[in-house]
Write a structure and sequence with these properties.
Helix content is 39%, strand content 21%. It has 413 residues and is an alpha+beta fold. The protein folds into two domains: 91 residues, Serine-tRNA synthetase, tRNA binding domain (Helix Hairpins); 302 residues, Bira Bifunctional Protein, Domain 2 (BirA Bifunctional Protein, domain 2), CATH 3.30.930. An eight-stranded mixed beta sheet has the order 1-10-11-12-15-9-8-4. Strands 7-13-14 form a three-stranded mixed beta sheet, with no helix packed on it. A two-stranded antiparallel sheet has the order 2-3. It binds one RNA strand of 92 nucleotides through α3 and α4.
Length: 413
RNA sequence: GGAGAGGUGGCUGAGUGGUCGAAAGUAGCGGUUUGCUAAACCGUCGUAGGUUUAAAAGCCUACCGGGGGUUCGAAUCCCCCCCUCUCCGCCA
């Protein structure tokens, strides 16, 4: 949610931003609605003031009662209009995208993202590299067939040493983030619509969530929803910021409309697992905190030994709530391509306005916090491990940092 | 699932249908006193929106879990919902 005062004082700014982001909300119409709302509000408030004044008189002047009774007829009618106008303004406002950082590249999809750097040497094999699906089948550690049998296509099992490898990586990543100042949470895996709205998933990605029948609840698409929602309606102590939170949860997404995209293997699935990084900070700190999250992501991949590149995500590839976003794309020898493994977004005050998360300094300085939402690791990183550490016979060598946790060095067919 | 209790400002906790945005205490902030700390004393101290202004003060409106109702007037009366706590049952 953007600050509506910007719309009132500088509508051109909002209009340009909406145009650049391909938002089809009619800004002029919204602005007119808002002006009308403000006018009605003034009328209503004046009438209320009049009513309050007359009511006080009633004690000594009973005749005033009749006047107020008449006045209330008009007032009730106007209040109804006011509610209606507010609803219309809010509905449109909810669809407005966040503003953009100056350095967000133009472009319409991920092909237009701007590469910032490549890190790590791509492995060279003297055999034909397999992709993670082929390796998963060969090693018997990824079972998509039974995932489909038991749940649905798009669900899968990690099996045996594959499950051990994945669990080791997730646990290790959580521990590393804790070492870097993050507080670890175990989070609810369902959230109410208010929380999804507040984090910007509603109304923008409504068809992505699994709703629970008969409940105002959906399975979480990411623990960002529950970790950011954690502080909804709160005023945080300025000195306590930045707050750095992490959690490991399953993430559920319907992926409606994305069939056929990156469908091989377990790249795009209905349930995956993620260690998340969330930061609440003061507005002036969000660019720095955004970089901190990126550094953490890079650190984790470097420790695991996975080659990757960092891209500055272009306008068209960024969700409406984002102000600036970095993706990290790992190198997948089996695919012969870089593919997205993590993303890291500075949401500025977009979520905090919707969720009413503020900070207050002892000197009285106050405002909405900024939030950063970034991946730590996901199953896709396990896939990257498999593809990068594969050997000619299809066996996969376990990255050194994970060996103390897996208890084995290699997964063999 | 059954029974009961309760939801008021950062926290604790008063509140008769009208002068209550709300007593008091505590925490916070500013100050005085003190050799330091502590204590004591004085002052200040809700949020949001609108309006005015160079800025502030000021003024207006709303908010005592949420929604609706009664009334000239509701924290206070009535109805519905939500949440929390306690006890019982069931249970990972």
């Amino acid at each position: 949610m953007i600050d509506i005062r910007i719309l009132r004082e500088n509508p051109e700014l909002v209009k340009e931003n909406a145009a650049r982001r391909g938002c089809d909300v009619n800004i002029d119409e919204l602005r007119a609605l808002d002006q009308q709302y403000l006018a009605t509000m003034k009328e209503v408030e004046n009438l209320r003031a009049e009513r309050n004044r007359l009511s006080k008189e009633c004690k000594t002047n009973p005749a005033a009662r009749e006047t107020v009774r008449e006045l209330k007829v008009t007032l009730t009618e106007l209040e109804k209009q006011l509610d209606e106008q507010k609803k219309q303004v809010d509905e449109k406002l909810a669809w407005l995208p966040n503003f953009l950082s100056e350095d967000v590249p133009d472009g319409k999809d991920d092909a237009d993202n701007l590469e910032i750097k490549q890190v790590g040497g791509k492995p060279s094999f003297d055999f034909a590299a397999r992709d993670h699906q082929a390796l998963g089948d060969l090693l018997g550690i990824i079972d998509t067939a039974r995932g489909a049998k038991v749940a649905q296509s798009g669900f899968y099992y990690w099996v045996g040493k594959g499950a051990q490898l994945a669990q080791a990586m997730f646990f290790w990543a959580q521990q590393e983030l804790v070492k870097r100042g993050f507080t670890l949470f175990m989070s609810p895996c369902a959230a109410k619509s208010e929380t999804l709205f507040g984090t910007g998933y509603l109304p923008f990605f409504e068809d992505q969530s699994y709703n629970l029948t008969g409940e105002d609840l959906a399975l979480i698409g990411t623990s960002e929803q529950t970790l950011v929602g954690y502080h909804a309606e709160e005023i945080l102590e300025g000195a306590s910021l930045p707050l750095c939170y992490t959690a490991y949860t399953p993430c559920f997404r319907t992926e409606a409309g994305s069939y056929g995209k990156e469908s091989r293997g377990i790249f795009r699935v209905h349930q995956f697992h993620k260690v998340e990084q969330i930061i609440f900070c003061k507005p002036e700190d969000s660019p720095r905190c955004h970089e901190i999250c990126l550094d953490n992501e890079e650190y984790l991949l470097q420790q695991l030994g996975i080659p990757y590149r960092v891209v500055n995500v272009c306008v068209g590839d960024m969700g409406a709530p984002g102000y600036k976003k970095y993706d990290i794309e790992a190198w997948y020898p089996g695919f012969g391509a870089y593919r997205e493994v993590t993303s890291n977004t500075n949401l500025t005050d977009f979520q905090s306005r919707r969720l009413n998360i503020r900070f207050k300094d002892t000197d009285g300085n106050r405002g909405f916090v900024h939030t950063i939402s970034a991946t730590g690791v996901t199953d896709r990183v396990v896939c990257a491990i498999m593809e990068n550490f594969q050997q000619a016979d299809g066996s996969v060598v376990v990255p050194e940092v994970l060996r103390p946790l897996t208890g084995f060095d290699v997964i063999t067919p």
